[in-house]
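User: I'm writing a tutorial on reading structure tokens. Could you give me a worked example: one chain, its sequence, then its tokens, then a sentence or two explaining what the tokens reveal?
Assistant: Sure. Here is the example chain.
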Amino acid sequence: MSEATLPSAQDIEARLRRGPFHEWLGLKVVSVSEGEIELLATWREEWVVNPDKGYTHGGILAALVDLAADWALVSKTGRGVPTIDLRVDYHRAAFQGDLIVKGKVIKFGSQVSVSEAQVFDKDGKLVASGRGAYSTAPATASATPTATSTPVPARP
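And here are its predicted structure tokens:
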């Protein structure tokens, strides 16, 4: 895809929010450009892992890193792609408040691509960052099971 055919932020948000988990995260696409995306995640009380301290669970931060790194590739792929590997570093606790997530493509490959993302709190402080490897091989119809596929026998 080129800059001229880059999907709009609204189009990408509509695709992204089709997933119930993404909808639950309250994701909004702030901006999209060639190889980059910025997301806003609307804070939820359910993100809190420790009610005494009030900070966000690391799994939420890891999911946001994965999503932004993955969807930064949309300018090349036109779609979200499967994660092969993901590394996340936690820099400080993320307390109550919306989070900004910025994703950027590092290397686009015909089979595997690498992207990174950073998560910032409402004050602009870096709370988490990471890098992922993603399968960017062209989608094939043969990967989808068909009626002629051999059924797997039920376990007794």
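What the tokens reveal: The chain has one domain: 3-139. The domain at 3-139 is CATH 3.10.129.10 (Thiol Ester Dehydrase; Chain A).
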